[in-house]
Amino acid sequence: MTFVNDIFSDKYASLEKIIGHQFSDRSLLEEALTHRSRSNELPGLSDNQRLEFFGDSILGFLVSHLLFDAFPQAREGELTSMRASLVDESSLAAIASSLGIGSCLQLGKGEEKGGGRKKKSILSDAFEAVIAAVYLDGGVTAAREVVQRHFSPLVQGLAVSSFSSTDYKTLLQEYTQSRFGSTPSYSVTGSQGPDHARVFTVTVIVNSELCGKGEGSRKKDAEQAAAREALEFFKR
Q: Where are the domains of the chain?
């Protein structure tokens, strides 16, 4: 794979410095920053969907490790909620934006015109893809260093007390009843891992709109994480 043009090549070099990893195989970085709207226009060009899928798991693991070390007294549910707050779409998009990933994206003409460089979903997916690219290029040590560099300050700003006693499901139900006269609907949309370490994915819908998604080793933890994200959704 070759770079599309020198302008993008220069931007990728700058991004390498910012994220803290110099690629041996720069084609991995290019793939991580290529949205499917661009690959649809250029047959044969790989988009970042596979890397995003892989990066989601890598990031979850490495952020979990950071939290595990930082909060030795925290309980499982507290750690799950903290992780959810760090790796949700809004948080990842904010980090991606601060790194300048938006300006490095390769987008199709439609997404370019539609403001794709600032879309949270595109930015967060690209960030996860970049983490996967770093892992494939430099191994787990390189990926851990990048995650530590950009997440350690966020982890240090967390307080277990903020996640220990908050019942987000109750707060969300009270909010939706007062505003919409309806209650949230939760659905288990997926699960992965062996039986002894299964992770559930739950979505919450309010007024037929998907408002939040959460993960947890128990369904109720995933529901709490989804409710928390929904509350953030309504604050926007």
A: 6-161, 166-235
